[in-house]
Amino acid sequence: MQKKNMSEGKNFKKVFKVRRCPMVSLNDIAKLAGVSKSTVSRYLNNGSVSEKTKEKLQKIIKETGYQPNVYAQSLKAERTHLIGVVIPRFRSPSTNDALKMMDRMAYNNNLQLVIMNSDLNSNRTLENIRQLERQRVDVIVLFATQMTEELKEAVSNSKTPIIVVGQQFEDVTSYIYDDYDAGRQMARYADELGHHHFLFVGVSETDQAVGVERKKGFYDYFKDRDVQIDFVETSFSREEAYQKALKFLPNLKATYIVAATDHIALGILNACRSLKLNVPDDVSLSGFGGYDEAQYVVPSITTVNYNFAQMGQWVMKRVLDLGEETSSELVVKPVYLTKGTSTKRVN
To answer: Residues in domain HTH lacI-type (predicted)?
Structure first.
């Protein structure tokens, strides 16, 4: 290719218009191609993308002269060393266990956590994300509960890298547990104890992990079985679970109550005590989460354990990789059942 004389004003403008590579970001490439930033990252890392998308990205990257390695180095140089964290509520054992590990690793790597509470409010979650973006944090870690369309759009369009914990978001790095299998494990255990009538105390299906997957796993296990499963919806609040239980326990027909979380189970346990019902002699009770508090009450709660500290460790390792342009990924971690003294074989 014949070289242009860069001293000539006309030719210089022409060349500069075509070769704007130092100013082109991964986000610009994504917008030009009409795909997400994660899709561009997958392509750059030889990940799975459709042939049509691959051809489009090849063409745009060639035309713009985009250089991914230069961008990654630039991103590292502009770090604020601030890690934004959006939590659903302050009194959450799962979130607290993860935060303890994240804080320890952040301190050891000269990083600082900026923690914002959404108080289980989807609008506040959106506001928190926007505020953290304005503060130019290096990355946002979102402990997600509700999966609204507005939240999905905000996460997808954010110019700040986002890691989602607890829910699966398309084209965004997500860390989840196998909640469907958790539900099946609990159902299998209850089945082994000979129970045939259950009450599932769950939460709204806007929470995919807790509200849908755990319940679906439990229900699907008994799909072709002659059992009865009743359902009551509550929130993540122990107090609300307690108040709901005071209403349904006097007329309870089920022999086994499955609570969607250990917090809910503890609220129900308190209601049983208030009504002079014995757990597990009058009714068996189990939860999900493996919270420490649920293991130190009497009776101890049969539960499915989740390693939340491991979650925090994994998140921080991803944060430390910021700027390497790693592709998005979905991490699904296994869970395991722990037998407490709150359940027993039915006569």
So the answer is: 24-77
CATH number at residue 189: 3.40.50.2300
**Residue 125 is inside which H or E element, if any?**
helix 122-134
> What's the pLDDT tens digit per position in 202-233?
999 989 999 999 999 999 999 999 999 999 99
| pTM recorded for the entire structure | 0.73
Is 293 found in the same domain as 187?
yes
Q: Are 214 and 182 in contact (CB under 8 A)?
A: yes
- 66-76 residue pLDDT tens: 876 444 544 45
Q: How far apart are CA 268 and CA 285, in angstroms?
A: 8
Range of the domain at 119: 82-177+309-333
Alpha carbon distances (Å) from 287 to 95, 221, 236, 319 = 17, 17, 12, 32
Domain count, the chain: 3
Q: How many CB atoms lie within 10 A of CB 26?
A: 19
